[in-house]
Design brief:
seven-stranded mixed sheet, alpha/beta, 16% strand
Length: 371
């Protein structure tokens, strides 16, 4: 990790932890010192397997991985090892990676599933080998021991409310397009549900898509099809479930020759998304403080690796299709618009003003008070 990324990760960890986990002690403190059944007792020299789903979204390599590594090191006095693999959006590859982690005898697994259903068998194999599993960011199926993510239905509600705010009195003057995430991601279903709970009855939904693998190019193709079917002048807004897809959508809107872009939502506060917000091309994103999520995962993983309970870390429980009452930590989110960029991603050290305000965006940044 280079110096700028390290500075960002450390600053995010320091600033964002106040959001949700201030009351949580370390995994060592949080564990009740009561041993979990099936989990091996271990000292600080533990091996934590970390499996992340893809590397197209900037967050995983820039924030999640280094933040988890940093916290595991803190909790184990530098003796804990994080063994990392990225599935690059391939569920079969991720299943094989779980098997490799089992062979390598990791003490615990943190898994962000490419496909929440397809991972279930691999989760069971890990459990059968005595390796507890923390589901990270996406609620994997199978016998998981703990889970941390954001309040994903609330994410969709935040996006829907922002879109209604942007549309104002024009909400029913035309039609909106809904660009949801991949059906293999359980979070996408929750984003979609939250958005519909806000938008239904208040807007006319002309076209709606579930975007294969969350890929921007697929969102671009779908948006071009929607514009052709509805008519470019009749599209008044676009619900995009994340920033990557928003980029593909905005490219399609520009290619259609729209003089004024309709408001487009997003999620993840990716640098390109933040820059589009500054430039007025994208209306909003959802800022999700990755530090508390990553630190919760690390705390739970270290506790489980040591055979301790996670009830001192977790704040709620959730049900998956295959497991009930899973101990969980759900992190709140923030609607990110041009008005609060300085007080969110810049203040928390995710990006500097210089990073956002490259030459292309210098004038827009000046107008927004960022330079």
């Amino acid at each position: 990790m280079n110096t700028r990324m390290r500075r960002a990760a450390v600053a995010v960890a320091a600033g964002a932890m106040a959001v949700s986990l201030a009351a949580c002690g370390s995994a060592k403190e949080a564990g009740d010192k009561t041993k979990e059944s099936g989990a091996p007792a271990a000292g600080d020299a533990i091996k934590v397997g970390l499996l992340l789903p893809e590397n197209q979204t900037a967050r995983y390599e820039k924030f999640d991985k280094p933040l988890i590594e940093k916290k595991v090191a803190e909790l184990t006095g530098g003796k804990g090892e994080v063994v990392y693999a990225n599935a690059k959006q391939d569920a079969t590859t991720q299943n094989s990676q779980v098997d490799t982690m089992i062979t390598n005898k990791v003490n615990v697994l943190i898994v962000d599933a490419v496909d929440s259903k397809a991972i279930a068998g691999a989760v069971k194999r890990a459990k059968d080998a005595g390796i507890p599993v923390v589901a990270y960011d996406r609620l994997a199926e199978g016998p998981i021991d703990a889970y941390t993510s954001f309040d994903n239905e609330e994410v969709g509600k935040v996006q829907g409310k922002a879109l209604l705010e942007a549309l104002g009195d024009k909400a029913k003057d035309g039609q909106i397009v809904m660009m949801n995430g991949s059906v293999t991601d359980p979070n996408a279903k929750l984003f979609k549900s939250g958005a519909h709970s806000v938008l239904d009855g208040k807007v006319n939904i002309g076209k709606e898509y579930d975007t294969v693998e969350w890929k921007p190019e697929n969102a671009n193709t779908n948006m071009a099809a929607a514009l052709s079917a509805i008519g470019k002048d009749k599209v008044v807004g676009v619900y995009s479930a994340n920033d990557g897809m928003a980029g593909g959508i905005i490219t399609a809107l520009k290619a259609a020759g729209l003089a004024t872009l309709p408001p487009v939502t997003g999620q993840d506060a990716e640098l390109a998304g933040v820059q589009r917000i500054v430039a007025g091309e994208q209306f909003m994103s959802v800022y999700k403080p990755y530090a508390p999520e990553a630190e919760a995962a690390a705390k739970m993983a270290v506790a489980l690796a040591k055979g301790e309970k996670v009830t001192g870390v977790t704040t709620s429980t959730v049900d998956s299709p295959t497991a009930k009452g899973v101990p969980s930590v759900l992190i709140p989110v923030v609607s990110l618009t041009k008005a609060n960029i300085k007080d969110t991603v810049i203040k928390d050290g995710v990006y500097t003003a210089d990073e956002i305000c490259s030459d292309k965006y210098a004038a827009a940044c000046s107008a927004a008070g960022l330079k």
